[in-house]
Amino acid sequence: MLSVEDLYAGYGAILALRGVSLQVKAGELVALIGANGAGKSTLMATIAGVLRPFRGQITFEGQSLLALSPEEIVRRGIALVPEGRRIFPSLTVAENLRLGAATRRDKAAVERDIEEMCTRFPILGKRFHQPGGTLSGGEQQQLAIARALMARPRLLMMDEPSLGLSPILVDEVFAMIRQLHKSGVTILLVEQNVERTLDIANRVYLLNTGRVECQGTPEQLRAQVDIVGAYLGDMWRGD
Length: 239
Ligand SMILES: Nc1ncnc2c1ncn2[C@@H]1O[C@H](COP(=O)(O)OP(=O)(O)O)[C@@H](O)[C@H]1O
Ligand SMILES: [Mg+2]
Prior knowledge:
alpha/beta; 6-stranded mixed sheet; 4-stranded antiparallel sheet; 38% helix; binds adenosine-5'-diphosphate; binds magnesium ion
């Protein structure tokens, strides 16, 4: 479904990705782990078209994404839930959801999907006309995920969705991710909760200073606990 080949990207003189290759097959939940600064958010931003790579290739369902705008990439079926949620605090829940569907023309279906999001995430129905900024952290995370789903993505990328949430809300976010995956959404997930991520992922990539240090199934990663532990430190046994 998604193929990243020998990708180099960064910011000015800073090279944040140094030859990253990664594959996501339809139906998979692929996790991206690694210490702060490893390049995880940069990789997601580059796939989403927000950042232009210096070198390499990104293809989605056989077609290159490199010349496409972020909007066109959303239209192709890739949505990103960015780090730090970034909902629009002064817009209502309803308006935030509608913005997630800005690339769609099937307005009647958009309205039906908004209703479906309020069923799937009841708190959003309750807070429908409230400004997004008045929601709690966990509620905003649900809104950010629901907003991304409004684009009807076939590939959903989530950048640290549980960051800054209380333990109970972290449980909820992981339950939500598991359920989304079950419902057929292909997922690329960046997470700091390594153990829990290994519990739900089909495959895992460990990034270290812009390179894929190791990859495999969760079982294979667990078998390399020494290597993985060296790169992740406390995060590895973080919870
Ligand atoms: N906007 C930016 N400008 C300059 N450097 C950045 C920017 N964003 C990230 N970086 C640098 O790029 C590297 C990778 O960062 P990032 O992709 O955010 O890592 P991660 O998400 O794994 O924590 C880091 O060295 C970071 O300091
Ligand atoms: Mg990041």
